[in-house]
Structures are given as C-alpha cells and as structure tokens.
Specification:
The structure holds two protein chains of two kinds. In chain A, 37% of the residues lie in helices and 17% in strands. By secondary structure, chain A is of the alpha/beta class. In chain A, strand 20 (544-547) and strand 21 (550-553) form a beta hairpin. In chain A, helix 3 (52-65) packs parallel to helix 4 and helix 10 (235-245) packs across helix 14 (310-318). The longest helix of chain A is centred in the middle third of the chain and has 24 residues, at 193-216. The mean pLDDT of chain A is 97. Chain B has one domain (4-131, 162-172): Pyruvate-ferredoxin Oxidoreductase, domain 3 (3-Layer(aba) Sandwich), CATH 3.40.920.10. Helix content of chain B is 40%, strand content 22%. Chain B is globular. The model of chain B has no long low-confidence stretch (mean pLDDT 93). The chains are: A alpha/beta, B alpha/beta. At the A-B interface, strand 1, strand 8 and helix 10 of A face helix 1, strand 2, helix 2 and helix 3 of B.
C-alpha cells in the first residue's frame, strides 16, 4: 500500500516497522510529529519527557534492557542530550538505539542554525541522512540494524524540508523481534575511568569498521551520467541538485554522513574533471575531501548560511537563472504574531509599559520581542531566562533587581527552567520570575507536558503543581494572576519587583487555540464613541486595525478576549449587538 | 508528464495546510509522484505561510522557487502581491480578495498597498479574484475560505470533481464534511460562471 506521508510520519512508520518498543522525546520543530505519529501505534510505548536529556536517557535504559528504542529532538535539543549521547557512544547498546536529530537550515523555527553532523563526529557515532519520506522510513529500519551490528547508538539527521514535506511511502509490516536478553556487564555499562578507558579503544575500533561499512553499503549510491562533472551530496541537497542538474552531472549520494567512506570519495572524484560538494550549512563532506587531497569546490560557491535550493545550484554550477515578473513596490512584511486571544499579550503589554528589562525564553512568547510590544531583551536557549536574570541582577545589583524580570512558559520551565529557579532560591537572588502558564506546549503545536495533567497519549497523568514546586525549593513569594486581567497582572509585577526577595508570578490562562477553549463572540467598535486614539492598537492584536479613521475589529479573527476593552478609555469596545 | 507546481500562499491560520493535503490526496489517487511541503512552528503564528505542491512522473525538490509555479492560489491580497514572482510565465493566478492587515500596517509603520489586483493584472498575469470570504459566509462558516479556493482551483485542473470530494471526505472530520462540500461547490460554481 502506498501513502502520502510527512517525512516525520514516515520516520514513525519506520520505527513501527523496525520493531521499536520504547520511545521518549521532547517536542521541537521540526522533529515533533515523529513522536506524535508514534503515539498512534499501540505496539510502541511512547512518552513526552520533560527535556531531551531525560528522553535520551530513557531510550538508553530501554536499549540496555533489550528493547529497540528511540528518542527524537531538534538540533538544539541534541545539545541538551549531548551529555548522554557522548557516553552512550562508549557503552554501546544491547537492542538497537536510534536518535532523530532534526536540523533547521534557514531557521524557520529555531534560535540558531547549527549543523548536527558535528555531534555525530564528536560523539563518534554513525549518522544517516535520508532525502525524502520513503528513504526516511527505510533508513530508520537500517539504523536499528547498524546499531545492533556495530554496538552503537545511531543518529538519523532530518532537516525541515525532509521532516515537513510529504512524499510517497510504501507501507510494510512490523518486524517483531522480541526482547534481547539483558546480561549484567559493568565493564560495558559502568563508565568509570578504568572501564571507560577500555571502551574508548572499542569506540575507535568501531569507527574503523564503520568506515569499511560506509565504503560498500547500499546507503551510499553512485549514479553515473555521461559527463565530466561529479557531484557529492546528501539529504535534501541531493533533491535540489537532481532538480537543478538532472543528468547533466554524475552523483555520489551519501546516505551515511558519518563516518565518511574515504575510498569511495577518492574513486568517485578521480572520474571527473570537476567535482562539486553540495551540502547545506557546514563543510563536513568538503573538509573530508580536502583532507584526502581531492580537488573539490563547495562552500566557496554555496556558503555556510541558510537553505540551498535548485535555483542556487543551477546558478552556481550551470550559470542559469529563471525569469520571473515582480511588482516594483516595497510590500509590508508579515512577521509571525501572537494569536488573537493569546494570554501572553496582556503580560507583555505590562512589561512594555513598565519599561522593564525582560530576560526571555523559547516559546510562542518569544514573539513578545516583536513590535509593537518590543518587550524582550534576550532569548538564548531553553531555560536561560531565569538563570541569566540571576546573573544580570548579580552583575548590576539593586538597579537591575527592581526593573528586570524573567519570562518563561510552563513547558520550558519544566524542561530546564526549574534548575535555574533552584539556583535563584539557593543563592538568595532578588529575582522576579514570570511563569506564563498556558497549560500546553504551544509553539510546537500543542503537546502535553508535566504541568498539563495529561500524557502523550492524552490519558490523565500526574500533574506538577507549579505553585507547590516553587515553594518547595524555597521561593516564599508565589502568586497566581489571570493575564486577561491586565491591572491585576501589572500590579503584581510592580509589587514583586519592590520586595527584596525572589518571587514567582504565575500568569495562568490556557492557550486560546486549544480546542477545549470556548471563544466568546467577536467584539465590536462603537464608532460614535471611538476617538481614534489608537490605544487598542498598542497591544499588537492581529484582529484590530484602523479603517476609515476608526478602530476596526476583524470578526473572523476576534475571539472576544477583552484585552482591548481594558485598553479603551472611552468605552468604545463591546460585545456584538 | 512534466512536473507541475502549485503554490498556496496565505496568512497563518487560514488553513493552507488542509488545502495542500486535499490536493496531495487527489494527486496520489491519480498515480502521480507527489511532494507537498508544509510550514510548521513559529512561522504558522499569523505569519506569511507558503505551501508547495508538486507532481509529475518524478518530483525531486519539494520547494517551488521564483518563476516555477504553474498555478498560484492566494488566500489574501497582500500575500498575492508578495508571491507574484513565483508564478511561471503564462501560469494561472487565483486569489481571494480578503485583506488581513499585517502587524507593520497595524502599528502604522507601513501602509497596506492600494489596488493590488490591478497592479498584478498590469503585469499581464491571468488573475481570477474571488470574494472567498463572502462565499464561505454564505455556507455558514468563515473558516471554509480555504476550501472555497480549492473549488476555484479544481476548475483549473483536469481532475474529476469526485476525486476532490473524496479527498475532502478523507481530510476533514465527518461533522464538517457537508459544510466543506458546500464551500467547495460554491468556489467551483463561481469559477465556472466567471469563465462563461
């Protein structure tokens, strides 16, 4: 049976067909749908963990116990899980262990553009890179076999265009391979120095064997056309190259991107007058070619930044450009915005009005940095808001403490905000932390987390009480506000900034996009009362604009949250008549 | 057959994901190689959203670039203006006349451009403009503008209408099926009437 499947859905299908039994992940664009799709297969135990490190450790434990296991994350998620990965490389596996890492060239939904192949090299583990959905599914199954054959975790590198493109997949049945026997083996699994020294030797021997494997595996394919140009490529870059260059060049397509096959690279390159390396982001393949003394062209043409495409490749290699028509005028951009009815909006308006320093974090609320709210000073990585606020306050002292806050969402707080807050409490930091609890992991598309009371499968689960958690680590001042009540929210922020001890304000209101949220009727402007003061525009609601000199509410977008009513001094906004 | 490229552009939240999935469903049933590229994550939040659908004997890149789209479907006027350059010479341009102001216009930093549709036509582009929001409201739900536009698109592609209806059945929850079929038929009817 053939089906049109998202790369991420095909990944999940590969886990199913490959006999995977245990899955633990943390959501992150563009990797999230893998684990959401896995949750639909009853044969597989699947969960959301609080962060990627926990998730990978769960998968490692399952693999050692004898079950094929998986953990999925985005590129920056692997930084969080790297500690586990680098030593799991030493211990190796019992049953197969596969890790998805989804890169985001072009940063469609990420804070940096790092190339996760560096992690494969540094951790000394093999990495496969598929270029469409069908390949993804097949590579995942092979990844389990490689993992067991070579006793190593295997990384599968996805990228936004592979993860989030649908293409055709042939479905096969599941291989049920049972549990492998678990045998106690401290020299293999207890990585204290004496044992780890011996395991490092094993790792280096394994790399040599993996290079031999890469020389002959069917994952690395050669396509010869009658031409004197050769192209070495992998993943989505292969698809761009095929579209741009067709049979005008010959291809070496690498399905294994770590370790690289030395002889294969040399043999292929020796056949052509010109050889191009086409790879997104960093110069991993090119560097290896140069190390082998091969005369190749790559980054000098394509650069290190952003996504490649068929037109970039056609331009650089064939010197051809497509013709197109365009409008001459400058058009307004349409950046992403907080949705209408977003509970974060009122909080950021208050922060903006009070002119505070806002140490931000990763989530929908990062959009608080955009105009007209402009209420964010920093965004670094998951959890950094609270810990960096502490550093900021320690550096400047009272002047900062009275006008600086950290802002973090519920899921990000569970991920790695809690450790920062423990540091605040433990080191007596006079810091004010706002936890924006919208009862869901929003930006990645509504995943449950330990604060929502439900698990990945939607079943009821233990629920972290954020107030009690904060109190139990030593924060005495913990209060809850409704962010739809802007006065209450603003007063709470002012009060907590004044007190000389750490405090937490939980702004609690579920995401307006949740299906369980009943929207109120759209609000309407009373044109006679509207004085055109534009105060209602200051909250940056996408439903409100000016039309014919008066404020106007787009009824297709408005969900009746009422934040704009609080802004209006002339009582010009009300319910529909 | 040679590869065909269809692009759907709009504002996050307007339902371009469903539209592209409907199309993918129709194309798969015809035995084509198909690739559908979607937008997830931050860009979805009210931003400018682009979806690509490509089909033919063999499709490689999932992405459509400037000068490559055979058909461009826009759910909003400013987005129609923004993506003009992606249309192939002689391609079809189908747009909804709906206007949604982006944040730089709301904050007053920029102006929403005037006479967008006229400017596109001046370029010699074959443009069909539809008040899809009005048609969707006639059906009883403003959220069905995406499916109205799929009805308009269906009139420009040579696939049996039954295939589209089957795709709607597969892709939308049962309780919204009738509503979406009506929206689709209104779009189709509008397009056929405007041709005759």
């Amino acid at each position: 049976m053939k089906k049109l499947m998202l790369g991420n859905d095909a990944f999940a299908r590969g886990l199913y067909e490959g006999g995977c039994k245990v899955v633990s992940s943390y959501p992150g664009t563009p990797s999230t749908e893998i684990t959401e799709a896995v949750a639909k297969y009853n044969e597989i135990y699947a969960e959301w963990a609080p962060n990627e490190k926990v998730a990978l450790e769960v998968a490692i434990g399952a693999s050692i116990a004898g079950a094929r296991a998986f953990s999925g994350m985005k590129h920056v998620g692997l930084n969080v899980a790297a500690d586990a990965l680098y030593t799991a490389s030493y211990t190796g596996v019992n049953a197969g262990l596969v890790i998805a890492v989804a890169d985001d060239p072009g940063m469609h939904s990420s804070q940096n553009e790092q190339d996760s192949r560096h992690h494969a090299i540094a951790a000394k583990v093999p990495m496969l890179e598929p270029s469409d959905s069908e390949e993804t599914k097949e590579y995942v199954k092979l990844a389990f076999e490689i993992s067991e054959q070579f006793d190593t975790p295997v990384l599968v590198r996805m990228s936004t265009r592979v993860s989030h493109s649908q293409s055709i997949v042939s479905l096969n049945s599941r291989v049920e391979n049972g549990l492998k026997e678990y045998v106690k083996n401290p020299p293999k699994y207890v990585m204290m120095p004496a044992f780890a020294r011996a395991r490092h030797v094993v790792v280096e021997e394994r790399t040599t064997k993996l290079i031999d494997f890469a020389e002959t595996t069917k994952l690395n394919t050669i396509e010869i056309n009658s031409t004197n140009i050769g192209v070495i490529t992998s993943g989505i870059s292969y698809q761009y190259a095929k579209e741009a260059l067709g049979d005008k060049v010959s291809y070496l397509k690498l399905g294994v991107v770590n370790p690289l096959p030395e002889k294969l690279l040399m043999d292929f390159a020796s056949k052509f007058e010109e050889v191009y390396v086409i790879e997104e982001l960093d110069d991993i393949i090119e560097t290896q070619c140069l190390k082998l003394g091969l005369d190749v062209k790559g980054k000098s043409l394509f650069g290190f930044i952003g996504e490649l495409s068929q037109s970039i490749i056609a331009d650089k290699i064939l010197n051809t450009k497509k013709e197109f028509k365009s409008l001459e005028e400058m058009l307004p951009m349409r950046p992403p915005v907080m949705c209408s009815g977003c509970p974060h909006r009122g909080v950021f308006y208050s922060l903006s009005k009070l002119k505070l320093n806002v140490l931000g974090d990763i989530g929908c609320y990062t959009l608080g940095a955009s105009a007209p709210l402009n209420a964010m000073d920093t965004t670094i990585c998951m959890g950094a808001s609270i810990s960096s606020l502490h550093g900021f306050n320690k550096a400047i002292g009272e002047n900062a403490e009275k006008k600086s806050v950290a802002v973090i969402g519920d899921s990000t707080f569970m991920h790695s905000g809690i450790t920062g807050l423990i540091n605040v409490a433990y080191n007596g930091s006079n810091s004010t932390v706002l936890i924006l609890d919208n009862s869901i992991t929003g930006m990645t598309g509504h995943q449950h987390n330990p604060t929502t009371g439900f698990n990945l499968k939607g079943d009821p689960a233990a629920k972290v009480n954020i107030e009690d958690l904060c109190k139990s680590i030593g924060i005495k001042r913990v209060r809850v506000v409704d962010p739809y009540n802007m006065k209450e929210t603003e007063d709470a922020i002012k009060e907590e900034l004044e007190v000389a001890e750490p405090s937490v304000i939980i702004a609690r209101r579920p995401c307006a996009l949740l299906k369980s949220i009943k929207h109120k009727p759209a609000l309407k402007i009373n044109k006679d009362k509207c004085k055109s003061c534009k105060m209602c525009l200051k909250i940056g609601c996408p439903a409100i604009s000016m039309q014919d000199g008066k404020a106007y509410i787009d009824y297709t977008q408005c969900v009746g949250c009422g934040i704009c009513m609080e802004m209006c001094k002339f009582d010009a906004i009300g319910g529909t008549n | 057959m040679t590869e065909k490229s269809i692009m759907i552009v709009g504002v996050g939240g307007q339902g371009s994901l469903l539209a592209s999935r409907l199309m993918g469903n129709v194309l798969l049933s015809k035995g084509y190689d198909v690739k559908v590229s979607e937008v997830h994550g931050m860009s979805q939040r009210g931003g400018s959203v682009v979806t690509y659908v490509k089909y033919g004997d063999e499709v490689f890149s999932p992405v459509i670039e400037k000068g490559e789209a055979d058909v461009l479907v826009a759910f909003e006027q400013l987005e129609a203006a923004r993506w003009v350059s992606y249309l192939k010479d002689g391609g079809h341009y189908l747009t909804s006349t709906q206007k949604i102001e982006p944040m730089p216009v709301i904050t007053g930093a920029m102006k929403y451009p005037d006479e967008i549709l006229e400017k596109i036509k001046e370029k010699g582009i074959d443009l069909i403009a539809v008040d899809a929001l009005k048609l969707a409201e006639e059906v009883g739900n403003s959220k069905t503008t995406n499916v109205v536009m799929m009805g308009v698109l269906a009139s420009k592609l040579d696939f049996p209408i039954e295939d589209w209806k089957n795709a709607i059945k597969e892709c939308v929850p049962e309780k919204f099926y009738e509503l979406n079929i009506k929206a689709f038929e209104l779009g189709l009817l509008f397009s056929r009437q405007s041709e005759s």
